[in-house]
Amino acid sequence: MATWQPSNACSRYGASMGRDSTRDADIREIVAQLHAGKPPRMSLQRVKLDSGGYDSGGAYWGTGEPLWRASDDTSNPTCDTIELFFRAPTREQAKRLVLGKVPTARFYR
Fold first, then answer.
1. pTM over the 0.85 mark
2. CA distance linking residue 69 with residue 104, whole number of Å
3. Is residue 10, in this structure, part of any structural domain at all?
4. pLDDT, tens only, 31-48
5. Which domain holds residue 38?
6. Which pLDDT belongs to residue 34?
């Protein structure tokens, strides 16, 4: 699995505040259609932030607990995918947060 490369989050107005996560209603639809009958395989990665709280694409997250990104594995780049951003102190707690949104998820690094 490749490391996530965030898109540019800066514009002439400055940095965006974080990034959007997939909405709960959309998650249910994606799981039902794209992953029908199979648990979605999710990757869970810690997002590296610089000392000012920015990711490598320039989105501002602030400082605090580690930031995590979870996404499903789809081989088709034209399909909608699940993408979640959240904070959790440990990987295990991050997995529990993902399972709260995608109860059938299976993880790999």
1. no
2. 17
3. no
4. 887 767 788 889 999 999
5. 17-103
6. 74
* pLDDT digit string, tens, across residues 57-102: 888 999 999 999 999 866 555 566 889 999 999 999 999 999 999 9
Alpha-carbon distance of 68 to 66, in angstroms, equals: 7
Buried b / exposed e over 72-96, threshold 16 CB at 10 Å, is: bebeeeeeeebebbbebeeeeebbe
Q: Tokens 């947060």 label which residue?
A: 97
**Beta carbons of 95 and 28 less than 8 angstroms apart:** no
Beta-carbon contacts of 44 under 8 Å, excluding residues fewer than 6 positions away, are 68, 69, 70, 91, 94, 95, 98, 107, 109
User: In degrees, to the nearest 5, what angle opens at C-alpha 10 toward C-alphas 5 and 14?
Assistant: 150
Please indicate, yes or no, if residue 27 is contained in any of the structural domains: yes
